[in-house]
Amino acid sequence: MSTKSLLQLSRNQDVPEKGHPRRRLSAGRLALQISAVAGFAVLSAASARAQRDLQATILAKERQELNCLRTGNIAEFASLLAEDAVFVDAHGAAGKAEVVKNVAAFRLQDFVMEDVRFLPLSSRSGVLIYRAGETGTSHGKPFSAEVHVSAIWVEREGKWLCVFSQESAASRPAPKLARHARWQ
User: Is the pLDDT confidence value at 131 over 50?
Assistant: First the structure.
């Protein structure tokens, strides 16, 4: 923009918009458009940052939950579940009490999370979707499984809780559990 154009803008005189000789753009309108674009850019960056933070928080909580199953910390595992939580697997739906009772005889030895996806539901909740490779023992018997998992986490009164989780058996073989990939 030339010096003359800047002077015209500072005096609030009409300046033709580039490429539109018949259309005039006032300094006020130009400032409003620049402000709107800048504001949108700031909001978009803040929104993307908030979404990344939300995803990181929920992913960390899901890993914490899985690590509780690995270490056998059933009390901590239970503290991560909402009282009204629902869990669904091949046996059907179960509430928190039933799930906590059943995991007492369940230990993960190793797990891998792959193809992790995230969908925010609100500023304080989201769905985590991933494929898990798991090895461990269930009721004293070793197992190896490949499952698709979806889990909904919600922040309630400052505490993150799992309110829903579903596991479905995967159709392809479990990934190899490399030592370097443990507890991802």
Answer: yes
